[in-house]
Amino acid sequence: MITDRIGVAENGLRRRLGRIAVGAPVVSVVAALLAATPAHAHVKWFAPYVVGAAPAPIADTLSNGWFWTGIVLVLAFFAATVLVERSTAGPAIGASLDRLTGAIWARNDDFMRAIIGAFFVAIFAVGGVYLTPDLQTPNEWVSWLQLLIALLVFSRRTMPLAAAGIIGLWVIALRDYDFFHLLDYLALGVGVAGYLALASNPESKFYQHRFALLRWGVAIALMWSSLEKFAYAEWFYPLVEERPFLTFGMPRDVFIPMAGVAEFTMGFGLLWTALIRRLSAVALIVIFTAAVYPFGRIDLVGHALIMGTLFLIAADPTTSGLKLKGTAPALGSVPAGLVAALVIIAGSYWTLHGAFYDYETDRAVPVAPSGELLTHVPNAEHPHGMTVPDAQVQ
Question: Is the pLDDT of residue 243 over 80?
């Protein structure tokens, strides 16, 4: 009798611990959402900016208390997820995610090719852009080439041609846009093109790495774009002023660095352990979906490739990240990996920007008649985000 009661008590305790373990990563996702939901609209699609302007010194970010507050919170969430993943609840959570996303993963290549095809059809329908709403062009043939890319992804024989077309469009865009500007889209473009090239040949020894390459492309793209919130916080001020609800009532200069941390760390999370990777992908899916309401279909079209890839990342049941046996090394790898990512990505951003632009030169800044700052004077050969008949220079 006493034995039965002890057994019942043990079962109840296990169930409660299981609920706590399951809840920890869920809390992590919810906290990340609260920190970043409106932050993922690409600012260059909706607000004025000048690519060659001097970024805020990186020391400003490193001395910002809200930046470090965000970092500490993320490290706590990731550490909790690592502990859960290594507990008895870890396999159960993974199995639940497998059941929810199994239909997508069972048709993973068909799903991804459909996403890529739909994206290029949408870009064709928008018209007048290279690969993304930010890179406008008056050349009509560019839109037709993107429709052709959409058609080429549905045959393994022609998928390498689609991959070449994606890289080719990025290279052609160099005629109209600065190299540093186009770095915003390089990692994602290489990831998608690399996926198409590898997926075209199932007999290749590299075939198994096609989704890893795609995941790395998305992760680097997210981490790179997040740095604008630290380097050019003022670019986001018009969005915050027009849509104050985006900050959830937080002061502007608190929200922007916290949002930058959330975007960077969730991009980093896509490269880490399986549960961190999958939960980061789920959080990002919700964030990008939520951004569509305030920012409209341009935001949906522009982020379609990333959103589609995130579904596959969330569905991927395979292991990822470092294979560390001990719990202590696994926990220690999170801050070490995050610091390494910040040093490499942020260091590259500030170093390359300084190499490509001369801040000491007093250059004229193009200004539209409405007063909007432009990165280029609009004309038929070198267009930018808006077309106006005349532009002043101040």
Answer: no
